[in-house]
Design brief:
245 residues; alpha/beta; Alpha/beta knot; Trp Operon Repressor, Chain A; five-stranded parallel sheet; two-stranded antiparallel sheet; 9 helices; 37% helix; elongated
Length: 245
């Protein structure tokens, strides 16, 4: 899979993909990431990428011409999706990341200043993506988040692909607790069920803990989830325990 990132600050990405699973995937050729300076697609001697907005507002807006030139020069004929990183976009979640991972190419446009000329959104961009309800000074960090989140769903990026299916949000729930050695640390013990050898019992414990955490921290996820009979049973058990305590 190929990522093409369009930005006016290409130097910001120098070290972002130099470690971890993304680096390994780049070395194996599973991923390809190219960072492009938007100023390279200007035609004036000042390499101007922004201008004042019509209507008299403060701030600057990214001009349409260099963005159109950049995308048209980079876009592959098939399997390409052009995304603008903006606080006004659809919220990035596990479902969207997995969907985007089926693309052959993702072009990520990093917004800046007061945004981009609306004609970019209306006539060039396929999707607008936000990583949360807050504002950053630009889309560079958001683009890096998209690359990381999407890459995990690309076959061959994560060594054990089974682990991706157990990540928080992938199954619509927060993740269950994880423990490692030692069994006891400062009097805090690992739950005995994890040493029982009963895989069915362990799976049920993990599901209950995931439901418990999701109910406490993100109950909205449960409202949009089609619960299985086992999950409904465990939720009732959790609510009874809460009431009794």
């Amino acid at each position: 899979m190929r990522f093409d990132i369009i930005t006016i600050f290409p130097g910001m990405f120098a070290s972002l993909f130099s470690a971890g699973v993304v680096k390994k995937a780049l070395e194996k050729g599973v991923l390809e990431i190219k960072v492009h300076d938007l100023r390279d697609y200007t035609t004036d001697k000042h390499r101007q990428v922004d201008d004042r907005p019509y209507g008299g507002l403060e701030g600057m807006v990214l001009k349409p011409e260099p963005i159109f030139r950049a995308v048209e020069a980079l876009k592959e004929p098939q399997g390409s999706v052009t995304c603008l990183l903006t606080p006004q976009g659809e919220r990035l979640d596990s479902r969207l990341a997995e969907e985007l991972a089926h693309s052959r190419q993702l072009i990520l446009i990093c917004g800046r200043y007061e945004g981009v000329d609306e004609r970019v959104i209306d006539h060039l961009v396929d999707r607008e993506i936000s990583i949360g309800d807050y504002v950053l000074t630009g889309g560079e960090l958001a683009a890096a988040v998209v690359v990381e989140a999407v890459s995990r769903f690309v076959p061959g990026v994560v060594g054990k692909e089974e682990s991706v299916r157990h990540d928080s949000f992938t199954a619509g729930l927060l993740d269950f607790p994880q423990y490692t050695r030692p069994r006891e640390f400062r009097g805090y013990r690992v739950p005995a069920v994890l040493f029982s050898g009963d895989h069915q019992k362990i799976a049920r414990w993990r599901l209950k803990k995931a439901l418990e955490k999701t109910l406490a921290r993100r109950p909205d996820l449960l409202k949009s989830r089609q619960l299985s009979s086992e999950e409904e049973e465990l939720l009732e058990e959790i609510k009874r325990e809460r009431k009794d305590s």
